[in-house]
Write a structure and sequence with these properties.
The protein is an alpha+beta fold. The chain has 4 domains: 5-239, Heat Shock Protein 90; 242-375, Ribosomal Protein S5, domain 2 (2-Layer Sandwich), CATH 3.30.230.80; 397-505, Rossmann fold, CATH 3.40.50; 508-633, Up-down Bundle (Four Helix Bundle (Hemerythrin (Met), subunit A)). It has 22 helices and 23 strands. Strands 1-6-5-4-7-3-2-8-9 form a 9-stranded mixed β-sheet. A 6-stranded mixed β-sheet has the order 16-15-18-17-20-19. β8 (208-216) and β9 (225-234) form a beta hairpin. α9 packs across α10. The protein is elongated and about 115 Å long. The relative contact order is 0.06.
């Protein structure tokens, strides 16, 4: 038998515990929900492993959670007969935050109690919430399948370290005993604990058991009192919430169910609960969170909904049941058709899974569409929800343009952008079309690293002069996504930074002739510019899009933009070398100064590099650029 060891917490856990013990959670009773939820998960994991190894049930096939307290010892215990922990698992899981990104997690903690509590939920570290009410926690556990003498005891006061030792534990599973603080006496009451379980954990499909309370008559004139009997009773409904009829479930119950499966501390924006019958039978209960998780952009992270088969838990994060662009959705799918031994590999190939995935996708898009409709209704209580959804998840939804051809039109109608007429991302493509100028033949947009960069781009000058609205595309995913959306309801989408600007009927004949004349008279200068910049520019031409600026860079129609090439290189991906076209404003004094200038070559390179700076790039040789500018200034 191993000796007792004293080990130090991972630094992030120590910092987290300090926050928790200083009343990070504004609602202290949440700790019980977290610990019961963990106990339920442990039982789910045993049930899943026992599909292939039924011997793990040992002599206790009925899974359950027991909650008990001892007033004299001031302890509250949450026990389960689930999968349990080995000694090494106890050290790994209770001494560290067992998810990646811990450093980012700690850097995101701001001291704002509400926001920080939300983050703790996202990182799945609800076990530590026990220290809200306890000054010491004892965990005793034995993993199913290990010998009784291979049990483990883990003890910590929530400071810098914890003790762990080997014990003999006949029963499998885990018991978490909280040694309550003086100000936590409320949790030594049957009524209080029952009310918390009813509020937060009634949906847990395992029975949650507590000892019955009995009235004991007083003797010799002493008053009577309630005492705990040896008989246990189930204090929750112990039926999976998604199996109940919708009419029997309150909004509050849906919200608490969401919080328990997501470890979130905010209510969801929306949910949908349906039983689907036909060639494939399943029940779906899906939620849209009200805020994005910290790792939303990590596409390699396991994401997805919980999968059950005939109410038997199969796996968390069943990513095959939703497309990647809906990876923010939480919830449960319970299939009546899939085999109990279904694997992640089989999920990818199953026709039933494909039908469930398509059904889930339709339901989620319908939820988002309902939020968008509510935004237009001044009387709706949900009026603000779509704007919140878009701010949190809009950039991810755009991925669907390239990933989900069948729903591309539905997704396109949900897109929102800022524009030259709106500083907020509130302009839909339909709203843009409705206010297009007479004679306008395209929906114009510009990409940029930031909205400010896009708004100050010289490429917008002719559009501002003409009063033509241009959409700002500033999310990293925009240019890739827009390559799959070439038109909206028959109207083409056109980048103002690609190809020649042809405003068609919006440009009068006088302007066209003036531009042609300028291009003709400027041919000798253009030829010299092309020669001077042959290593940098694919072509040099007179512009039709500039009003006040001397030059700008554009790419050919269908080519990759300079911004996308930069983003790919920053992400460590191989990007083609994009040779842009330099467009010059023949009426600008700086451009006119080129003709006959002894510093022609330097001026040409300065024009190019300034155009590159204006659209967010950097000159290839910044020092040489500065040297040229200084020479001219001198």
């Amino acid at each position: 038998m191993s000796q007792k060891q004293t080990l130090s917490f991972q630094a992030e856990v120590a910092q987290l515990l300090h926050l928790v013990t200083h009343s990070l959670y504004s609602n202290k009773e949440i700790f019980l929900r977290e610990l019961i939820s963990n106990a339920s998960d442990a039982c789910d994991k045993l049930r899943f492993e026992a599909l292939h190894h039924p011997e793990l049930y040992e002599d206790a096939p009925n899974l359950e959670v027991r909650v008990s307290f001892d007033k004299d010892a001031r302890t509250l215990t949450i026990a389960d007969n689930g999968i349990g922990l080995s000694q090494q698992e106890a050290i790994d899981n209770l001494g560290t935050i067992a998810k990646s990104g811990t450093r980012e997690f700690m850097s995101r903690l701001s001291g704002d109690q509400k926001a920080d509590a939300q983050l703790i939920g996202q990182f799945g570290v609800g076990f530590y919430s026990g220290f809200i009410v306890a000054d010491r926690i004892t965990v005793e556990s034995r993993r199913a399948g290990l010998k009784p003498e291979e049990g483990v005891r883990w003890v910590s006061g929530g400071a810098g370290d914890f003790e762990v030792e080997t014990i003999t534990r006949p029963q499998r599973g885990t018991s978490v005993t909280l040694h309550l603080r003086e100000d936590a006496s409320d949790y030594l009451s049957t009524w209080k604990i029952k009310s918390i379980i009813s509020k937060y954990s009634d949906h847990i499909q395992l029975p949650i058991l507590m000892r019955k309370e009995e009235w004991k008559e007083g003797e010799d004139g002493k008053p009577g009192e309630h005492v705990l009997s040896d008989e246990w009773e189930t204090v929750n409904q112990a039926t999976a919430l998604w199996t109940r009829a919708k009419k029997d479930i309150t909004p509050e119950q849906y919200q608490e169910f969401y919080k328990s499966i997501s470890h979130d501390y905010e209510e969801p924006l929306a949910w949908t609960h349906n039983r689907v019958e036909g060639s494939t039978e399943y029940t779906q209960l899906l939620f849209i969170p009200s805020h994005a998780p910290f790792d939303l952009w990590n596409r390699d992270k396991a994401a997805g909904v919980k999968l059950y088969v005939k109410r038997v838990f199969i796996m968390d994060d069943a990513e095959a049941l939703l497309p990647a662009y809906l990876r923010f959705v939480k919830g449960v799918v319970d299939s009546a058709d899939l085999p109990l031994n279904v694997s992640r590999e089989l999920l990818q190939e199953s026709r039933d899974v494909k039908a469930i995935r398509e059904g889930n996708t339709r339901r989620v898009l319908a939820m988002i569409e309902d939020l968008a409709k509510a935004e237009q209704d001044a009387e709706s209580a949900d009026k603000e929800k779509f704007a919140k959804f878009w701010a949190e998840f809009g950039a991810v939804l755009k991925e669907g343009l390239g990933e989900d051809f069948g729903n591309r039109e539905r997704i396109a109608k949900l897109l929102r952008f800022a524009s030259t007429q709106s500083d907020t991302a509130s302009v839909s493509l339909a709203a843009y079309k409705a206010r297009m100028k007479e004679g306008q033949e395209a929906i114009y947009y510009i990409t940029g690293d930031t909205q400010a960069a896009a708004a100050h781009s010289p490429q917008l000058e002719i559009f501002r002069k003409k009063g033509i609205e241009v959409l700002y595309m500033t999310d990293r995913v925009d240019e890739w996504a827009l390559s799959f959306l070439t038109e909206f309801e028959g109207t083409p989408l056109q980048s103002v930074a690609k190809g020649q600007v042809d405003l068609g009927k919006l440009q009068d004949e006088g302007e066209k002739k003036a531009a042609e004349k300028a291009a003709e008279s400027f041919k000798p200068v253009l030829a010299k510019l092309k020669e001077a910049l042959k290593d940098k520019a694919q072509d040099v031409r007179v512009t039709t899009r500039l009003v006040d600026s001397p030059a700008c860079l554009v790419v050919t129609e269908g080519g990759m933009s300079l911004q996308l090439a930069r983003l790919m290189k920053q992400a460590g991906q191989k990007a083609p070398d994009v040779k842009p076209v330099l467009e010059v404003n023949a009426s600008h004094p700086l451009v006119q100064k080129l003709d006959g200038s002894p510093a022609f070559n330097d001026l040409a390179h300065i024009l190019f590099d300034q155009a590159l700076l204006a659209e967010g790039g950097m000159p290839e040789d910044p020092a040489e650029y500065v040297k040229r500018v200084n020479a001219l200034l001198a």
